[in-house]
């Protein structure tokens, strides 16, 4: 992506400028909130297909996120292949069985009780797409030498948030899973040693009988999640 001889600074006028009135800004912020508060983590999926073009555009949104030094230290592997999804599910369920058998500790297991999760992860094979998010710890110049990436976790987390919002905006349900360790993912998906999987996102349409935990609808009020200094 980067060439050693093309790292100089050059400025251009701000493109895509928005010029909204205060009322328009308030309306836009309210509309986005109203849309995003309808997002739920869904564990029950339909096998209804999702067109690749939808996933591609959502990934373009993720790729537009800000990043440290604009290095964009992420890669998204979108998987619809049944065999790979089955392998991911098998590895995830093996990991989860250890987790629920005592690896997590009593406090963590107790905290999960209102969520109703178990070691079974059928969504990983039923959902039409899995998106594996990779964090790129270092990059390479066009001549093959390495360069350092900066604020990698922060950058990848922002891009992942963009992706989840885009998928929801497209009318899709999602569920996140953190692979630990799932070391097979990088080689199996052709990713280099510089990249580490950070998230697996199940993507699709909720099943007709999909449910969510009642507790998931309880969100902290604004005065508990924010402070204003004016």
Notes on the protein architecture:
This protein is an alpha+beta fold and 230 residues long. It has one domain: NADH Oxidase. 37% of the residues lie in helices and 15% in strands. The protein has helices at residues 22-36, 52-63, 82-103, 106-112, 123-126, 152-169, 185-188, 222-225, and strands at 74-79, 129-136, 138-140, 146-148, 173-177, 195-204. The protein has a four-stranded antiparallel β-sheet. Strand 3 and strand 4 (146-148) form a beta hairpin. Helix 2 packs antiparallel against helix 6. The chain is globular, with a radius of gyration of 20 Å.
CATH-defined architecture: 3-Layer(aba) Sandwich
Average per-residue pLDDT, rounded, comes to 95
- Give the topology string: H per helix, E per strand: HHEHHHEEEHEHEH
Instruction: Output the structural class.
Output: alpha+beta
Quick one: CATH superfamily?
NADH Oxidase
Spans of at least 5 consecutive residues with low confidence: none
Report the β-strand fraction as a percent range: 15-25%
Number of strands: 6
Provide the domain count. Answer: 1
In DSSP terms (H or I, runs of 4 or more residues), the helix count works out at: 8
General shape: globular
CATH topology: NADH Oxidase
Question: Helicity range of the residues?
Answer: 25-40%
Distance between the termini: 43 Å
How would you concisely characterize the structure shown here?
Helix content is 37%, strand content 15%. It has eight helices and six strands.
């Amino acid at each position: 992506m980067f060439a050693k001889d093309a790292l100089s600074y050059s400025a251009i006028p701000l493109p895509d400028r928005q010029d909204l009135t205060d009322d328009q800004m308030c309306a836009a912020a309210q509309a986005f909130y109203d849309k995003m508060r309808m997002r739920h983590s869904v564990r029950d999926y339909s096998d209804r297909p999702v067109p690749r073009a939808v996933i591609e555009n959502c990934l373009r949104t993720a790729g537009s996120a800000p990043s440290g030094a604009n290095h964009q230290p992420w890669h998204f592997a979108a998987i619809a292949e049944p065999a790979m999804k089955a392998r991911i599910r098998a590895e995830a369920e093996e990991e989860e069985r250890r987790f629920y058998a005592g690896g997590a500790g009593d406090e963590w297991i107790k905290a999960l009780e209102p969520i109703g999760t178990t070691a079974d992860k059928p969504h990983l094979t039923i959902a039409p797409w899995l998106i594996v998010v990779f964090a790129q710890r270092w990059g390479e110049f066009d001549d093959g030498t390495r360069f350092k990436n900066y604020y990698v976790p922060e950058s990848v987390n922002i891009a992942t948030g963009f992706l989840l919002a885009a998928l929801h905006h497209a009318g899709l349900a999602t569920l996140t899973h953190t692979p630990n360790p799932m070391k097979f993912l990088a080689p199996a998906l052709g990713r280099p040693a510089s990249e580490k999987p950070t998230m697996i996102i199940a993507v699709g349409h909720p099943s007709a009988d999909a449910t969510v935990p009642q507790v998931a609808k309880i969100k902290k009020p604004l005065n508990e999640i924010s402070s204003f200094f004016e």
